[in-house]
Structure to design on (919 residues):
């Protein structure tokens, strides 16, 4: 098991390097190949009517006057060993992992990412618990009572949930629960400061996000359970005289969980990289909102930072999923 | 006698309220018990909910993030407006309705600038007793330092304008305070004593008082300047100071105890606390504004969905202000792209466009009035005129074809550019394409992202010529409310640059260039404004810009806030200097 995790960790590091190189190339190399000069790149980050001296100074300060491979090397070196940046009157040291400074407002990227991560984490985990529990329960009931009223009701809700875009359900939830019936708060409060207000503020966002995701889980669980409950080992378990509840949860659901774990791992990994629309709709200052700002401002270090963080979470989530496979399904071995 | 005296007092009181256009905050309920509005457009005519009531928390919400809270690193109109709460420039705009808001008044300075040397030298005296939030005195050296850091260190403080860099004498020799560590600094700004600051310019500039109304002249103590990190610990010279600041999320301001009302005839310091929430969902902002809980900091007006709601409900409409935003929506005709180098072809375009269809595409009359001049009505120098008048503003196919024939063409193939992330601009361009098609001008739409519109595409003359971009969609607002502030960047032939160009028509007319130069050196305001009118007329005669609409904003007025007045000085936004809270 340990050697497996080590191997996967090493592969993950290589993968992240590849992701960083590709992302860097997309944002720094492609514009050059398309004919954009370093001066034009630099000029995006200066106010109106810059002088030639202004452009030259900004180009130098952002490192855009260097070859792209040198810029990439400095970026990677910064992540591992930190880097020095001029902030005007002085030069400051940006500690590792240094993801660079925003080209727009010259603020360090990494502290911004870490300050926003708890919000994204709160959103993702809370919603994940809701959609996992509701989706799996709905899926199991539907599978055990196929074509029943409950089955049709759950699947109908699932279909509706997956069909409605977040900017509709989110805005509707805000309108209903913050203005029509002001039950929920609007200002995010950290879990450590006030757990009840934290949950109160995030609940509409959790529900909106869970409605979107639980549909997939309900359908996945339903199809998985329908298939599993007809397997020979279920018949054997019943023949051994096990209670039906035990047969469903310990044998049926456990075997049907494998594809759910796979999808769950991916979803959580992606969400931790930023639930872009949900965070924007609910005005949550998470990673996703930071990504949107980076894209709006064409702020390459911000975009690069979010991309790498998202890739990191996806890679880690996949690793955890692979390890969980073995625990969930005895037929899988990691050796 | 007593009764008549009371009646006289009552009459005078009522009259003064009417004259001042004020509506009081306290008797503000209608028959249903709901908050009564002062009426549609009330804040464009006077102060709504005038009150000196102190206390409460005032909330601003913004769907975006500002460029910076640092007064030396910002260029957004709403930050020019808001930053005056913590950064007092030498001059500012009087809180007043509409064009009255364009009136310049001294802020940190004791009086207006005193010109000498024919307008090449400007001297300002600071008010006595000025202090920072920490109680230390504000001196003229801090004003000088603020100008130096904001204009001459653009490698780190890059987001503000650089007018001082352009206009100060000896500017090209100065490397900025972070590189030039000498005590002297920029030689063309002198501080003979702690309360006097003297600016020496390259050329006569009679609107220098406007320039020093920018937050870039708000004092910054050199010892506390941390360059880009100054934004995290701004030292206030205004009536509020920062309690907390989270980049891209929120700023909280509280009263500055060391601000002295005796040194400041403009500010009232009404709320206990001011909260600025950033990156708030635009729909949420509208809901909060309508609920009286927030002000839309950007002042760009309500969302389209909210607009439909408020304009159809008389009660809600009474709580709105529909006003000019100091901007012109126009289409530049590129004089360097054939056949638009010929005036007749340009005139054909002028006559061909159905401006009503363009107005409709942009959201109707509430979002803009049909335009026929370069200067919008809220900018001094505007004079009503319509050189290419057509019946009902719907275009004149016959006249357009006549001009086309005079140009030696029966049809034209060209391209029209618009910003891909501005749907209204794309819709307007599409309406123009349909108009032009009727006279034989076939224009294909080219879309470019707004972030690179000027640096890579429409603002790069070589690119426009190579891509046959004959027509370019544009929207423009003045950096300061004067003809020069509006026209200089879009009509001055000397301002054409190879990238980041905003003179999109590449219009280089000797007469216009000379008139601009003459205007800025003319001391008499009336004469100067008449020169701006002449420039406007000359430009229209040359048919290089097609004015489409005078941009308007539809602001929802939060009922719970006091002293709301929409000012032309800040694109129709409410003046943020003295807004208070009616009930806590």
């Amino acid at each position: 098991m340990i050697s497996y995790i080590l191997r996967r960790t090493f592969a993950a590091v290589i993968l992240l390097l590849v992701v960083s190189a590709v992302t860097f190339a997309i944002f720094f190399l492609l514009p050059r190949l398309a004919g954009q000069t370093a001066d034009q790149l630099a000029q995006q980050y200066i106010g109106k009517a810059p002088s030639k001296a202004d452009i030259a100074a900004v180009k130098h300060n952002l490192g855009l006057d260097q070859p792209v491979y040198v810029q990439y090397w400095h970026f990677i070196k910064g992540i591992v060993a930190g880097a020095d940046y001029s902030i005007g009157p002085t030069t400051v040291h940006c500690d590792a992992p240094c993801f660079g400074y925003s080209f727009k407002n010259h603020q360090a990227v990494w502290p911004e990412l870490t300050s926003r991560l708890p919000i994204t984490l709160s959103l993702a985990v809370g919603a994940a618990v809701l959609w996992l529990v509701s989706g799996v329960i709905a899926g199991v009931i539907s599978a055990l009572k196929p074509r029943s009223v409950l089955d049709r009701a759950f699947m109908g809700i699932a279909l509706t949930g997956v069909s409605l875009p977040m900017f509709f359900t989110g805005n509707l939830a805000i309108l209903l629960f913050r203005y029509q019936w002001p039950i929920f708060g609007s200002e995010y409060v950290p879990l450590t400061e006030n757990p009840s207000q934290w949950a109160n503020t995030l609940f509409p966002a959790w529900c909106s996000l869970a409605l979107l995701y639980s549909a997939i889980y309900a359908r996945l669980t339903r199809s998985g359970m329908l298939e599993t409950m007809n397997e020979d080992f279920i018949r054997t378990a019943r023949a051994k005289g096990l209670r039906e509840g035990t047969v469903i949860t310990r044998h049926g659901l456990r075997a049907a969980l494998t594809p759910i774990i796979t999808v769950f791992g991916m979803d959580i990994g992606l969400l931790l990289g930023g639930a872009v629309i949900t965070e924007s709709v609910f005005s949550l200052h998470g990673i996703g909102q930071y990504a949107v700002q980076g894209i709006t401002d064409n702020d390459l270090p911000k975009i690069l930072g979010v991309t790498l963080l998202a890739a990191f979470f996806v890679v880690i989530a996949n690793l955890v999923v692979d390890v969980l496979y073995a625990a969930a399904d005895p037929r899988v071995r990691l050796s | 006698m007593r009764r008549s005296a009371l009646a006289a007092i009552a009459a005078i009181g009522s009259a003064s309220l009417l004259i001042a256009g004020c509506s009081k905050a306290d008797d503000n309920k209608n028959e249903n018990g709901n908050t009564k509005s002062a009426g549609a457009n009330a804040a464009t005519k006077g102060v709504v909910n005038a009150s000196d009531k102190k206390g409460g928390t005032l909330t601003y919400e913004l769907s975006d993030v500002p460029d910076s809270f640092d007064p030396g690193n910002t260029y957004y109109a709403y930050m020019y407006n808001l930053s005056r709460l913590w950064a007092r420039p030498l001059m500012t705009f009087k809180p007043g309705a509409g064009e009255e808001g364009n009136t310049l008044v001294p802020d940190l300075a004791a009086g207006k600038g005193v010109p000498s040397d024919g307008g090449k030298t400007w001297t300002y005296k600071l008010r006595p007793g000025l202090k920072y939030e920490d109680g230390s005195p504000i001196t003229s050296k801090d004003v000088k330092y603020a100008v130096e850091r904001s204009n001459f260190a653009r490698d780190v403080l890059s987001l503000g304008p650089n007018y001082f860099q352009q206009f100060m004498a000896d500017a090209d020799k100065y490397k900025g305070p972070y590189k030039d560590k000498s005590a002297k600094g920029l030689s063309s700004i002198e501080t003979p004593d702690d309360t006097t600051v003297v600016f020496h310019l390259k050329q006569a500039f009679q609107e220098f008082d406007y320039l020093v109304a920018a937050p870039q002249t708000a004092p910054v103590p050199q010892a506390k300047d941390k360059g880009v990190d100054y934004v995290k610990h701004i030292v206030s010279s205004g009536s509020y100071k920062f309690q907390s600041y989270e980049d891209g999320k929120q700023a909280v301001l509280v009263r500055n105890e060391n601000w002295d009302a005796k040194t400041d005839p403009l500010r009232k310091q009404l709320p206990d606390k001011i909260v600025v929430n950033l990156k708030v969902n635009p729909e949420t902002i509208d809901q909060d504004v309508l609920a009286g809980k927030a002000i839309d900091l950007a002042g760009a007006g309500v969302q389209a969905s909210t607009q439909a709601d408020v304009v159809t409900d008389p009660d809600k409409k009474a709580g709105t202000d529909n006003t000019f935003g100091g901007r012109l929506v126009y289409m530049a005709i590129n004089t360097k792209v054939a056949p638009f180098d010929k005036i007749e072809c340009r005139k054909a375009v002028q006559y061909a466009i159905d401006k009503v269809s363009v107005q409709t595409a942009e959201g109707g009359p509430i979002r803009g009035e049909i335009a026929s001049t370069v200067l919008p009505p809220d900018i001094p120098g505007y004079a009503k005129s319509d050189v290419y008048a057509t019946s009902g503003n719907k275009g004149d196919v016959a006249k357009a074809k006549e001009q086309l024939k005079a140009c030696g063409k029966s049809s034209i193939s060209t391209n029209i550019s618009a910003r891909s992330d501005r749907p209204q601009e794309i819709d307007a361009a599409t309406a123009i394409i349909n108009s032009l098609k009727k006279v034989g001008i076939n224009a294909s739409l080219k879309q470019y992202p707004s972030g690179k519109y000027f640096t890579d595409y429409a603002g790069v003359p070589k690119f426009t010529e190579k891509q046959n971009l004959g027509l370019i969609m544009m929207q423009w607002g003045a950096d300061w409310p004067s003809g020069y502030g509006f026209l200089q960047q879009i009509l001055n032939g000397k301002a054409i640059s190879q990238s980041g160009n905003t003179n999109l028509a590449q219009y280089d007319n000797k007469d216009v260039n000379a008139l601009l130069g003459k205007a800025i050196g003319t001391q008499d305001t009336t004469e100067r404004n008449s020169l701006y009118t002449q420039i406007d007329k000359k430009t229209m005669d040359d048919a290089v810009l097609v004015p489409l609409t005078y941009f308007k904003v539809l602001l929802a007025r939060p009922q719970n806030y006091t002293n709301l007045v929409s000012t032309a000085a800040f694109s129709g936004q409410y003046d943020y200097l003295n807004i208070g809270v009616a009930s806590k």
Q: What stands out?
A: Confidence is low (pLDDT under 50) at residues 1-28, 30-34 of chain B. The longest helix of chain B spans residues 2-20. Residues 324-553 of chain B form a domain with the Dipeptide-binding Protein; domain 3 fold (CATH 3.10.105.10). The CA atoms of residues 21 and 240 of chain B lie 28 Å apart.
